[in-house]
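User: Here's a structure from my thesis project, written as structure tokens. My advisor, Dr. K., wants to see whether a designed sequence matches the one we expressed. Can you design one independently, without my sequence as a hint?
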């Protein structure tokens, strides 16, 4: 099974509905905080279920949602079909947006599932689709020295604050026996160092900086904000 196939199936990444809701709300609030202007055109690439997308849409002019998993896209289409400011992109993804039309492209918690060559291709696509002053934000990037305990501690802290601590403990046991852990062992997760990210951006015509904070609850991972050089 590939990561793409994994994300197209039902999975137990979230320990319960409360976890999923709090996660999606947090991501939506963080993305909304990145929107620069009320008329901004924003793409959330690899958006997942994006149940908080209406909050982002309220802060911008147009929100494009794209996920590689066809089943996720179908659910997004059903959920957001009546929301005028939200467009769910089809299988061609970012290619369905106009050249030089986007103010902000956000890729959160996706890079670890892409091959390096796929990320390089995405950098070229994003550069073509962004307005001259547009920003490309890549977040939740896993550094090479990250440990599994970093993710566990971040989840437990989030769960404690969110009132689903015991469900999170049970969820950790489920994860231990899950497809996710098996795939993590066989396919692995792509990791990048800070300097490596900045030079990858530079090689594709971006000037990038690591941000002080990450999107979401895991602050051991990294966020980068890039503009065209
Ligand atoms: C960990 S989830 C993150 C979802 C969302 N961005 C968030 O932060 O909650 C990873 C998502 O990336 C999507 N994905 C994986 N590979 C992708 C690719 N090549 N292009 C677009 N989306 C991809 C998966 O289908 C999945 O929904």
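Assistant: Designed independently from the structure alone:
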């Amino acid at each position: 099974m590939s990561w793409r196939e994994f994300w197209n199936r039902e999975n137990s990444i979230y320990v319960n509905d409360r976890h999923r809701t709090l996660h999606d709300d947090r991501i939506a609030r963080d993305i909304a905080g990145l929107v620069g202007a009320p008329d901004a055109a924003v793409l959330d690439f690899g958006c997942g279920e994006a149940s908080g997308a209406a909050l982002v849409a309220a802060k911008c002019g147009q929100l494009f949602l794209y996920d590689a998993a066809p089943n996720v896209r179908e659910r997004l289409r059903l959920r957001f079909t009546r929301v005028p400011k939200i467009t769910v992109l089809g299988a061609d993804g970012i290619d369905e947006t106009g050249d030089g039309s986007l103010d902000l492209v956000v890729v959160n918690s996706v890079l670890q599932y892409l091959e390096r060559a796929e990320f390089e291709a995405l950098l070229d696509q994003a550069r073509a689709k962004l307005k001259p002053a547009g920003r490309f934000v890549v977040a939740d990037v896993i550094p090479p020295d990250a440990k599994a305990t970093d993710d566990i501690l971040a989840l437990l802290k989030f769960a404690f604050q969110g009132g689903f601590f015991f469900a999170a403990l049970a969820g950790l046991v489920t994860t231990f026996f899950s497809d996710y852990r098996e795939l993590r062992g066989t396919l692995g997760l792509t990791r990048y160092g800070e300097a490596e990210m900045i030079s990858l951006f530079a090689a594709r015509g971006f000037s990038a900086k690591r941000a002080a904070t990450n999107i979401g609850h895991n602050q051991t991972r990294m966020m980068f904000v890039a503009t065209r050089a």
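When you compare it with your expressed construct, this may help: The domain at 3-228 is CATH 3.40.50.150 (Rossmann fold).
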